[in-house]
């Protein structure tokens, strides 16, 4: 591993700190579902961003930490878990046959968010990104015609895994999960060290904008029971 987990976390924190200086509250309709990546995340809690911080700000950090964990696990898998690495590479080659994948190539702060906003009754969609992602084109290369990495056989013609291979693959998956948990704990520990910088950035760039929104909302609220201005 070229860099330690802690160094990678610090690097992504620096990226997040640069991003937060350009953050502004969104004016479009918010998400309608709970984000499973951020709700109850130990990484968000370790960073001190679990309370009174907009979800988009939390999400931008949690997705960057997810990248750190996934990259570390991928490297560990390639070096130490050959069966699992083969299966993952085969799955990736099959996935590459998809005609359109709108979730790829997004900046970290946008990954894991809903592809499409909620539809409006007076503005129906001609199509949605989700529909395009699921659509299978007629000229798409069938997945079962992809060659497995390092193999000249058709994956559809590969023999099924033997009981011994299944047991070995299960053991490798357990090792990968355990390694991911270890990396996650190290990420949380490093985020605890980075917490002062994270909170300072929230106080400087996020809190004033949130307070301005609240003040604007309060100034526009009206009720029949409230006394009107003369």
How would you sum up this structure, described in words?
By secondary structure, the chain is an all-alpha fold. It has a domain at 5-21 and 35-91 and 152-215. The protein has six helices and no strands. Helix 1 packs antiparallel against helix 3 and helix 1 (5-20) packs parallel to helix 6.
Strand content: under 5%
| Gyration radius, rounded | 23 Å
Which outline best applies? Answer: globular
Nearest-integer average pLDDT:
79
Low-confidence stretches: 136-153
* Gap from first CA to last CA: 70 Å
Report the biggest beta sheet as strand number plus sense, adding barrel if it closes. Answer: none
Q: Helical element count?
A: 6
What is the string of helix and strand elements?
HHHHHH
Structural class, please?
A: mainly alpha
Helix share bin: 40-55%
Q: How many β strands by DSSP?
A: 0
Topology:
Elements: H1 5-20, H2 42-47, H3 55-80, H4 82-95, H5 129-134, H6 163-220
Descriptive terms for the model:
single chain, 230 residues, mainly alpha, 6 helices, 55% helix
In short:
With about 230 residues, the protein is an all-alpha fold. The protein is built from six helices and no strands. The protein has a domain of about 140 residues.
